[in-house]
Structure formats: C-alpha cells, structure tokens
Design a protein that fits this description.
DNA polymerase, domain 1; Ubiquitin-like (UB roll); binds FE2/S2 (inorganic) cluster; 5 helices; 157 residues; alpha+beta; single chain
Length: 157
Amino acid sequence: MTVAFTVNGAVQSVDAPESATLLEVLRNHLGLRGTRYGCGLEQCGCCMVLVDGETSYACTREVGTVAGRAVTTIEGLGTVEAPHPLQRAFLDEQAGQCGYCLSGILISAKALLDRTPDPSRAEVIAALDKHLCRCGAHQRIIRAVERAAATLRGSAA
Ligand code: FES
Ligand code: FES
C-alpha cells in the first residue's frame, strides 16, 4: 500500500503494509525516531503526534488513516539551533530526567498552547494527563509548559 501524507511540512509517499502503524512508518520508513514506542496500547503517550493539529497516538493508528493529512512530530517543532519556545522552556526548567516521555509531552503541550494560549494549571495538568513520566519530573514539566505559554504570549503581544 502506498500512502501519501505531509510530515512536518514535507510531502512523503511511503510503501508500507496495510497493518503498519503510523509510529512504525515514522520511525522505520522515514527515520523520524523522536517519536517513541512505550506501551503500544495508548497508555503512556510517548508516541503522541499531531494529525491535522489534533493529538493522536501513533502506536495504534494505522498509517492509511493519515493519507492526505498533515502529521507533526517532535522533529517539526524546532531545531537545536532554533528550538521551539516549549523546547527552550523545558531546557530552562530542566524538565526531564531520562527524556523518554518528553517527545509526546511536548506534542500535547503544543496542542494545548495552540488552542489555549493562557492555560490554567489545571488545564495544563489535564492536557498532560494521558502521559506517563516514570522519572517523576511532573512539577518541572508543568512549570516548563507555563513558562513557554508566557513566552509565546509575550512574543505575540
Ligand atoms: S506507545 Fe503509544 S501510548 Fe504508549
Ligand atoms: S523524564 Fe524520564 S520518563 Fe519522563
């Protein structure tokens, strides 16, 4: 099966088995290894990507369902040279230990800030509720999202 979709702004056409998940295609066909495999069961959130701006678990989503759609992965947020304000804030707050959970968390945080520029702490927690962080970095992660929100609001003013 050939599936064409946009990934981080570039059109991709991929030959993959019909049963292939979006996560397999991103990692194994396109070499985008920032999106991670954790549970494969929509239980941990480390595979989270955006599909047309909405969060989606790449570990269970069949790749055929993204045909013609726009997928954003962690590689689409920013670069080492020009990090997204969320990535900058996570560095500034040292909001991670092993980092395994962070790709998915950053994606969900981006979805939140895109629709809610000034979220309450409860809204940040709710947006990240589907993500497991085994290192216990939760407080710093929440602070980093709040810091990024303030930065983005400042740059929009
Ligand atoms: S790997 Fe997708 S939710 Fe855990
Ligand atoms: S920083 Fe290690 S799982 Fe979150």
